[in-house]
Amino acid sequence: MRFVLAAITLLCASLVLRAQPPAPQSATAAATQSPATPPRPTAAPLIEFEAVKPIEPPGHPLSEADSAGVTKFSFLVYGDTRSGAVGDGTVVHPIHSAVMDTMLATIKARQQTQYPVRFVLQTGDAVLRGATGRMWNVSYTPIIERLTKGADIPYFLTAGNHDVAVAPPGDAVRQLGLHNMLTAVSQLIPEEGSPRRLNGYATFAFGYGNVFVIAIDTTIAADPLQLAWVTNLLEHLDRTRFPHVFAFQHYPPFSSGPHGGAGIVEPQTLAVRTSYMPLFRRHHVALILTGHEHLLEHWVERYTDAGREYRIDAIVTAGGGAPIYTYRGEPDLAAYLAEGAAQNVRVEHLVTPGRTIPENPHHFIVVQVDGDRLSLEAIAAGNAPFTPYNGRSQVELTDAVTRRPE
Questions:
Q1: In angstroms, rounded to a whole number, what is the distance separating the alpha carbons of residues 185 and 53?
Q2: How far apart are CA 8 and CA 30, in angstroms?
Q3: pLDDT at position 216 over 80
Q4: CA 239 to CA 228: how far, in whole Å?
Q5: How far apart are the C-alpha atoms of 295 and 319, rounded to whole Å?
Q6: SS3 content of the chain, % helix, strand, coil (to 5)
Q7: Predicted TM-score of the model (pTM)
Q8: Exposed, middle or buried: residue 367 (CB in 10 Å: 0-12, 13-18, 19+)?
Q9: Mean pLDDT for the chain?
Q10: Above 50 in pLDDT, residue 396?
Q11: Residues with Cβ < 8 Å from 44, sequence gap 6 or more?
Q12: pLDDT tens-digit map of 265-314
């Protein structure tokens, strides 16, 4: 983290210099200046620094080694818990709190079943502006500690554009947002130096039972070091131990809201399609869990590899508290499908988001692991009616053809 702290030091020094009053003028300069000319205003600091408090961890963190024989469990996924233009940094986020109430009730209800909830994934955009420390401390951390400290549930966050800003590595504002985010989750994710963590990045992985999860910072989806690290991780992964591999990231490969519908293709999404989707097909990644579009939608990509059929489920779940989005139109996938023609790539829009806000409630999903089988349930805040799968809240994610690699 040395380069992160160095960037923060430079940024703060820059802001201090900007905030200094102008140097006194010489008598000659003062005499030639018009009395009607107002004094030059000083620039206000761009960022208000406040140290971020680390989220308290659960009393019983996940153990990759001790869970080797586990094949039945569930986990929760949600995302985009930030406020709108105002809210974060002033109050505990009320909608996120309501979603968390329902998550905790779901965890309690499943505690004594065959499929207890073992962890929670958040797909990014925790707060409105990640570089503002009080947004983490005031509006976000108290809610997450209800889960980690209160319910003893491990929690993992991947980076969103509001958390770390859309800027190249080394940008000062991005580095402060990244520093704040990594400080907040410092006791929840693998520590630097671990083989499950890319040093200096919000990129990490963990295993539990027969599932392996990779968190990818898609705000820098074109970053070559991150891609190389994820590639190396997949190439050396024990797929006998981990038949299910999931990626969770902020930017989806496909979406139909204001970020991806009606012909819009953001650079990060394009990088996900061109760099990560071929990698995911090569290593038979089963599930991509994403956010960014404040709604629920579900895509299924089917492809052929070595004469065998596989599928990838790409799910957008971003109803954690941010202002709700609606359907804008189908993405243009012609070029993507052409590039994947050799593998007979096909994409199905299994769940299309609603065209009105009430049709897209704040929500989370439950992913259930049962040996080789996967299933999903969508749950709205307050357990309001929510049946996006042709009148049902649940769907199977496993075709008749198994996804287990040969």
A1: 9
A2: 37
A3: yes
A4: 19
A5: 5
A6: 30, 20, 50
A7: 0.87
A8: buried
A9: 89
A10: yes
A11: 19
A12: 999 999 999 999 999 999 999 999 999 999 999 999 999 999 999 999 99
Mean pLDDT of 235-264: 96
Q: Hunting for tokens 């496993």 — which residue is that?
A: 398
- Dihedral pair phi/psi, residue 368, rounded to 5°: -105, 130
Task: In whole angstroms, give the CA distance from residue 89 to residue 132.
Answer: 8
Q: Which residues contact 31 (CB under 8 A, 6 or more apart)?
A: none
Task: Please state, in angstroms and as integers, the Cα–Cα distance from residue 128 to each residue in 112, 302, 313, following that order.
Answer: 36, 35, 28
CA 323 – CA 82 distance, rounded (Å): 8
* Phi, psi (degrees; rounded to nearest 5) at 126: -65, -40
Domains and their CATH numbers in the chain? 1-46 (no CATH), 51-396 (3.60.21.10)
CA 91 to the chain's CA centroid = 22
Task: Give the residue among 362, 311, 349 at the shortest CA–CA distance from 97.
Answer: 362
Name the strand (E) or helix (H) holding 141. Answer: helix 141-145
Q: How far is CA 344 from CA 272, 282, 300, 337, in A?
A: 19, 13, 13, 8
| Sequential DSSP letters for 110-128 | HTTSSS-EEEEEE-S--SS
Q: Is 108 helix (H, G, I), strand (E, B) or coil?
A: helix
Q: What is the pLDDT of residue 47?
A: 60
